[in-house]
Amino acid sequence: MAPQSGQDHQSRAPRGSRRKYGLIGRTLAHSFSPRYFGDFFAREGIDASYLPYELASIEELPSLLAREPNLCGLNVTLPYKREVLRYVDVPSPDVEALQATNVLRIRRSTTGQTQVYGYNTDVEGFRRSLFTWLGGQRPRALVFGSGGAASAVLRALSLLGLEGQQVSRHPRQGMIAYEELRGGLAEECRLWINATPVGLCPGELLPLPYEALSDQHLCYDLIYNPSPTAFLQEAQQRGTRIKDGLEMLYIQADEAWKIWTL
C-alpha cells in the first residue's frame, strides 16, 4: 500500500529546491511515518524529505512555516487535530463537518504569502481498513474518545451504515460515560474502537468492562505503536479478534500523498 508516485508533481518543483514534508505533534518518537515516507521517496527517486516536527504548542506552527520555505505538506497528529484549525485558510468539507484535520497542504505565492489547506484522511483510512476486516459483519460499535479521531471514526461508521455509540470520560450530548457500560450494552455492541491516546504509553488501559468481551467481539485500536496495546491484549486474552491502526496509517499515507500532489 505504498503512496502513488508523484513524479508529475516533482516536475513542477522550482528549480534547485527540495520539497519537504513532515509530521507535527507533541510527541513523535512512536511514529512510523518518517521512515515510511523516507523509504518511499528513495524507492521512487523523488527528491524530497519527510521529517518529524515536535511542537510544544500549536502556536509554534507559523514559525515552523516561516523557517521552512520548502515545506509543502504536513500530517497532523495528537493533540493538534482540532487546535490546528485556527491556522487553516481553506478547510475541506470533511474538515468543516468534523472540525478536525490531519493533513495540511501548503502553498506559497510568488510574493511569499502562505496559504494552508486542511483535509481529513482519518475517515477514509479507517473506513477502508474496517470494511475489509469486518468481512460483511454489521455489528453495533462503541467508540471510545471525544476528539478528532473519534469524530472521524463515527463518520466512517455512518458511511458504512453502522451504528456507533460514543463513550467519553466527559460526555457531551449524545455520548455516554464509561461507567454506563456496565450491563448489557458492552455485550450487545460487538465492535469496540479505541480512538483515544490511551495506550501510547505501555500499560495504559481504558476503564472498560473487559469481562463482557467474547470471541464474538472485535476490538480495533487506532494506535499502531506500541502494538498490541494493553486494550488489545485484554481483548486477545478473551478470544476477541483484534486489529491495530497500522493498515489505516498506510491508507492515510497514500491519501496524503494524493493531496500533496494535487
Distance between the termini: 19 Å
Low-confidence residue ranges: 6-16
What's the gyration radius in Å? 19 Å
Molecular shape: elongated
Work out the helix count. Answer: 9
Task: Count all strands and give the number.
Answer: 12
Strand and helix order: HEHEHEEHEEHEHEEHEEHEH
Major sheet attributes: 6 strands, mixed
Structural class: alpha/beta
Q: Going across the biggest sheet, name each strand in turn.
A: 2-1-3-5-6-4
The level of helicity is 25-40%
Summarize model confidence as the mean pLDDT.
92
Structure commentary:
With 262 residues, this protein is an alpha/beta fold. The protein is 31% helix and 21% strand. It contains 9 helices and 12 strands. It has helices at 7-11, 33-44, 61-67, 93-98, 122-134, 148-159, 184-188, 230-236, 246-260, and strands at 19-25, 48-54, 71-76, 90-91, 103-108, 114-119, 141-144, 164-168, 176-177, 191-194, 218-221, 241-243. The chain has a 6-stranded mixed sheet. A 6-stranded parallel sheet has the order 9-8-7-10-11-12. Strand 5 (103-108) and strand 6 form a beta hairpin. The model is unreliable at 6-16 (pLDDT under 50).
